[in-house]
Amino acid sequence: MNRREKVDKPLNLQVEIAGITFKNPIMPASGTFGYGEEYAPYLDLNSLGAIVTKGLSLRPKAGNNTPRVCETIGGMLNAIGLQNVGLEQFIYQKLPFLEQFDTPVIVNFFGNTQDEYGEVAARLDELPAVAGLEMNISCPNVKHGGIVFGTDPRAAFDAVSAVRKKTSKPLIVKLTPNVTDIQVTARAVEEAGADAVSLINTLTGMAVDVKTRRPRLANTIGGLSGPAIRPIAVRLVHQVVQAVKIPVIGIGGISRAMDALEFLIVGAKAVQVGTANFVDPNAMATIIDELETFCREEGIEDINDVIGTLKA
Amino acid sequence: MKNHKTIVLSNQEISPGYFRMRILAPEYNRLAKPGQFVMFRVQRSLLPLLRRPFGIFRAGFMPADCDTMPPKEFIEIIYKVVGSGTEIMQGLHYGDPIELLGPLGAGFDLSLTGGDSIMVGGGIGLVPLYMLAESIADPSRAEVLIGGRTRDDVITVTEFERLGVKTFVSTEDGSLGDEGLVTRVLESRLEKKPGARVFACGPMPMIRAVEKICRSRGVQLQVSLEELMACGVGACLGCVVKGEGHTNDNPSYLCTCKVGPVFHAGDLAWEDTVSADDCECGADR
Ligand SMILES: Cc1cc2nc3c(=O)[nH]c(=O)nc-3n(C[C@H](O)[C@H](O)[C@H](O)COP(=O)(O)OP(=O)(O)OC[C@H]3O[C@@H](n4cnc5c(N)ncnc54)[C@H](O)[C@@H]3O)c2cc1C
Ligand SMILES: Cc1cc2nc3c(=O)[nH]c(=O)nc-3n(C[C@H](O)[C@H](O)[C@H](O)COP(=O)(O)O)c2cc1C
Ligand code: FES
User: Fold this and answer.
1) CA–CA distance, A228 with A248 (Å, rounded to integer)
2) Which protein residue's CA is at the shortest distance from atom 39 of ligand 1?
3) Cis previous bond, A67, omega within 30
4) CA nearest B141: which of B164, B170, B171, B175?
5) Domain boundaries, chain B
6) Which uninterrupted H or E stretch holds A199?
7) Cβ B226 vs Cβ B261: under 8 Å
8) Coil, strand, or helix at residue A242?
9) Residue of the nearest CA to atom 28 in ligand 2?
10) Which chain A residues have a beta carbon less than 8 Å from that of B46?
11) pLDDT of residue A5
């Protein structure tokens, strides 16, 4: 077969998760892509599988003191503290911009209490411009001594159940990797009614300035992201795919199509790109291009034929 | 605002530890405004991972390689070697591939340069002031106060002189110009020109001292700040400073990369106007 024939074959990159159709399996990770508008000058938002917005809470949230970010080898630590404009401002100031694109909008959200989670979900449920919800359970439960919802399977189950009662929109639950057995949490949220899970959120980490002997983040501890975490993320996605029947979205250290393909092969139906957007604002467009090239070169006609094809 | 995959044109050490790099930068003469910056990708590998922010020193044109081609547009940045990224940068040569995201941020408010202007630059903080000086219609009414720890930290004096701007040099060890802090020079210049507007960029202790001087005299001040940045475009919220009136209950966080890096001093929360805990500008970096 000559090269020309290969190129002309139609190629399907479309995937479906929880009733949402994604043009391709590439979308931004929450908190690394603002509200979309920040990156619109650099990248066609219509080319993305979806747009995932910065974590949203009922009321505006201030966030942590600075320094909030620092670079580490092959990655970065952040302790932004979930600063966001709050639900109402999001609806009136940020969402209208996103509505103009032919790309599903997935709204990432969190709460400080189980009730707050429910309230945000109920409000988002009313908005036709929102295609789906991504529930971040990597935040402390202020009613229960600040234990992170996602590290306690019981609390995770309860919170997801509460949200499930308030929304009929596709519900993706975003898992934290900072647990002993991620399969337990994954099963708990599946049982509570999640339509899909996404993982991983950042791994907790810390860095010290040896001259001042102070932590390099004002918050002391932060979340590690970037290429450095990818092998851990691939492993965790692999384990979660074994544990649940609902679709899985892979996240962690993806900067190239080859990285995304690792996740797809272990069974993720789509992936999110985070820190790589900071390194190259055009990263997702490049990944989509590279993915097409890869499929054409490998004679793959449908990206779905790659998903979950890990060999022993 | 664009990401250019481009090349280094030249890279020279202008003072021990300080380099001046010229970069091929289409469109920057038209787009770049005084006080704006670029996010510089040191090399196309994943190390170092994040881009480094640098102020635009100036933009210009240089002759093309052959007569039939249009002149080349470039920008210059001046950087101090301080860590892993700038260490790699000092080894770059003509033709080396790099990436440039920009021009970014909001620059100086040029509507305030009509009367007497005093620019205050500490060390590398002089960088964004050059384009500002270039933009001033009547350079004879502008002066620049250049401060450094030692003579090695005093850069680009002749460039400012060539613009017709009066220069005052001071070093903390007295190795060049007056001995002492640049803020002392500012106080004496403000005695002479009480109605001047002040534009400052430099280390945080200097900025804070300049702000106090200007506030006590009712002098309008704009400052250019540095914060740790990951994205440079307002997406990560890593680079925030606290705005005027910030409290924990009613937070006001401004992105240095988007609202700044240049701020009207009155728009920010300063150490002695809010509790130390609430004040970003008090961070001692
Ligand atoms: C708007 C803006 C304009 C700047 N303009 C200039 C300039 O014209 N010339 C110049 O020499 N420097 C400038 N800086 C500072 C410059 O960005 C840092 O010196 C540089 O990033 C250090 O990189 P490194 O890898 O050598 O240091 P490392 O310490 O190894 O860097 C580690 C991380 O910290 C960040 N970082 C370190 N120091 C600073 C700092 N002072 N400000 C912000 N981030 C920092 C780096 O970007 C990197 O992400 C500017 C900073 C900002 C925010
Ligand atoms: C600066 C920053 C902010 C983030 N904010 C959020 C957030 O608001 N909500 C959330 O669920 N995840 C947030 N994350 C986590 C990312 O969405 C992603 O899970 C993580 O960074 C791993 O992917 P990466 O290695 O591709 O960056 C944030 C990450 C970074 C770096
Ligand atoms: S550097 Fe990311 S918001 Fe300013």
Assistant:
1) 21
2) B228
3) yes
4) B164
5) 2-104
6) strand A196-199
7) yes
8) helix
9) A31
10) 74, 227, 255, 279
11) 52
Give B3's contacts in chain A (Cβ within 8 Å).
42, 280-282
Specify the CATH number of the domain B2-104. Answer: 2.40.30.10
Catalytic residue numbers of A read 139
Q: How many domains does chain A have?
A: 1
Distances (CA, A) of A137 to A105, A110, A117, B53, B76: 19, 7, 9, 33, 46
Flag whether A311 is in a domain.
no
Instruction: Answer yes or no: do A279 and B50 touch at CB < 8 A.
Output: yes
Q: Decide whether any atom of ligand 1 lies within 6 Å of the B181 Cβ.
A: no
Of B49, B227, B248, the CB nearest to A66: B227
What tokens were used for B230? 């990951």
With respect to residue A263, please indicate whether it lies within any of the assigned structural domains: yes
Q: What is the CATH number of the domain that holds A7?
A: 3.20.20.70
* Run of H or E including B5: strand B2-15
Position A310 in a domain: no
Which-ligand-closest: CA of A54?
A: 2
Interface probe for B, chosen from A278, A280, A284 (most Cβ of B below 10 Å), is A278
Give the distance (Å) from ligand 2 centre to CA of residue A155.
Answer: 22
pLDDT band at A7 (very low <50, low <70, confident <90, very high): low
pLDDT digits (tens, 9 = 90+) for A28-77: 999 999 999 999 999 999 999 999 999 999 988 889 999 999 999 999 99
Which chain A residues touch B235 with a CB distance below 8 Å?
A: 32-34, 38-39, 54, 277-278
Q: How many CB atoms lie within 10 A of CB A217?
A: 26
A154 falls within a domain: yes
Whether residue B245 contacts residue B269, with contact meaning beta carbons closer than 8 Å, is answered with yes
CB–CB of B209/B245 below 8 Å? no
Tens digit of each residue's pLDDT, chain B (285 residues)? 799 999 999 999 999 999 999 999 999 999 999 999 999 999 888 889 999 999 999 999 998 888 888 889 999 999 999 999 999 999 999 999 999 999 999 999 998 888 899 999 999 999 999 999 999 988 889 999 999 999 999 999 999 999 999 999 999 999 998 889 999 999 999 999 999 999 999 999 999 999 999 999 999 999 999 999 999 999 999 999 999 988 877 888 999 999 999 999 999 998 755 443 433 433 333
Give the domain extent around A236: 3-305
Cα A250 from Cα A238, distance rounded (Å): 9
Residues 91-110 of B with CB under 8 A from A: 99, 101
Nearest CB among B99, B233, B237 relative to A80 is that of B237
pLDDT higher than threshold 70 for residue A239: yes
Residue of B1, B236, B280 with shortest CB distance to A278? B236
